[in-house]
Amino acid sequence: MEQEQNAAIVSLATKSEVPFDKIVILSNKDEAKWDSFERFLKKRMAMISRPSNDIKIHLAQIQSPIDYQSISIETEKWITKLSEESDRLSINLTSGTPAMTTLSVLHGKGKSNTRFVQSSPNNVIEEVEIPLDFGKEYVRSASKNIAHTATSLPQVQKAFSDLTAKSKTMTDVVEKAKRIAASEVPALILGETGTGKELMANAIHKGSLRGDKPIRVVNCGALAENLVDSTLFGHKKGAFTGADKDYAGLFEQANGGTLFLDEVGELKPDIQVKLLRALQQGEITRLGDIKTINVDVRVIAATHQDLTSLIEQGDFREDLFYRLAVGIINMPPLRDRLEDIPVIVEQLTDQINESGSKHPDYVSKKVSENGIKFILSQSWLGNIRELWSTLNRAFLWTDAKLVGEKELSDAIINRRLDEQNNDVRLSFNDKVDIVQLTENYQKKYVEAALKASGNVKKHATQMLGLKDHQTLTNWMKRLGIQNEKEQ
Fold first, then answer.
1. b/e for 19-55, b at 16 or more Cβ within 10 A?
2. pLDDT in the model for residue 143
3. Which end of the chain is more exposed for a tag (fewer CB within 10 A), N or C?
4. What are the residues facing 132 on neighbouring strands?
């Protein structure tokens, strides 16, 4: 430019067989000369009647010209953005460092509408054909390495070994999670309280290519509202009272690894916007700062809430939901995993005994056969967490070596389940059989009470709040319920 001569960028722009509608130049040096170069290039384009309005130099957020990680993040961001906006994207391979060229090829080959161009020292333009299929080459290279690790337990198997999965329900979930772990997509883990969502998130992280990188965990529902922004995205010194130094938030701490956002449905709308930006663009901004920071973080979110209902209520962004819900995992409740329960009870029992063994008066215990049957008959609305708490209380309150139905039933916390207060809506011509609806509702609760009580009528009567034993018997006859155990 300073010598009024053309180099690679100008040569490519002016000599390309097909004119470019838009030219994007990335730079991290000589910022004082950017305006001059833009004018220089626009002038050259205008002289040959080519589009010259949309030519812009952008700051490349890289650590150094040979820092592969930051160059990769910036390259992937721009190539993805421009590829989505363009019918055809041409990528210049002449300018920049070898690291920049290499990563431009790697990321560019993954897009269906890209081509590569370069300029020779005498400014001759040529299109470059890259013959390699990087996906196949990677698989071929990795296959050669399998023989060296054939005797080792695969990383993904180790990662999921902490998850008990003997029931078909759970094995299906684990197989799905393994596929998600092998990808780079965000994941959303759904399930009731206590179903093991954090354990699953850790397994997905360990089974991924990021398994040796950090994972950061945060319960969004436990964060004070005024600290959420700072905790996730960091802050600059002086951003608020008490911010006496710069702070790197969890996104920066998890850079290269995984961030697990438990109870993501608790996030407020303004934080949801920043989270969406981090997912879409790989960029965050610290509280009190204007500078953007590039981050490479895989987000795994979890919630026990119905996010679709929150969307309808306006409390959760629909676009954020679809960004998170690429790999969805539904953790089954414990009552749908009956085959897993004996193994889970054994594992929890071992943990309690190991902890108690440090006390000189502790007596090691195990759950009896009738204790297991009792556990299998319960609903466990709090799932594994409730089971764990109940076992701890039962073990604490007895010196017996065998813990059975009596000890476990005494240890279960009684809860009063309130009736759901859902609005009922009917249209003018709708018809319902209100008697049948009521009887179906009663039948389900009577059957559930009988199951939970081990078919002991006396206890089921108390659970249902009925007047006496005979009242329950009359209800059962009316509802057509057979009792396996008359007491």
1. ebeebebbebeeeeebeebbebbbebbeeeebebeeb
2. 46
3. C
4. none
pLDDT at 157 over 80: no
The pTM of the whole model exceeds 0.70: no
The residues pairing with 257 across neighbouring beta strands, listed in sequence order, are none
Domain boundaries 8-128, corresponding CATH code: 3.40.50.10770
- CB neighbour list of residue 392: distance below 8 Å, 6 or more residues apart: 352
- Residue pair 117/93 in contact (Cβ under 8 Å)? The answer is yes
Buried b / exposed e across 359-382, counting CB within 10 Å, b at 16+?
eeeeeebebbeebbebbbbbebeb
CA distance 215 to 159: 14
Assigned CATH class of 335-411: mainly alpha
Q: Strands 114-119, 125-128: parallel, antiparallel or unpaired by DSSP?
A: antiparallel
Q: Choose between 1 and 40: higher pLDDT.
A: 40
Going by C-alpha positions, the residue among 297, 155, 290, 171 that lies closest to residue 235 is 290
CATH class of 155-332: alpha beta
Give domain limits for the chain.
8-128, 155-332, 335-411, 434-479
Question: For the packed helices 434-452 and 457-464, what is the interaxial angle rounded to 10 degrees?
Answer: 130
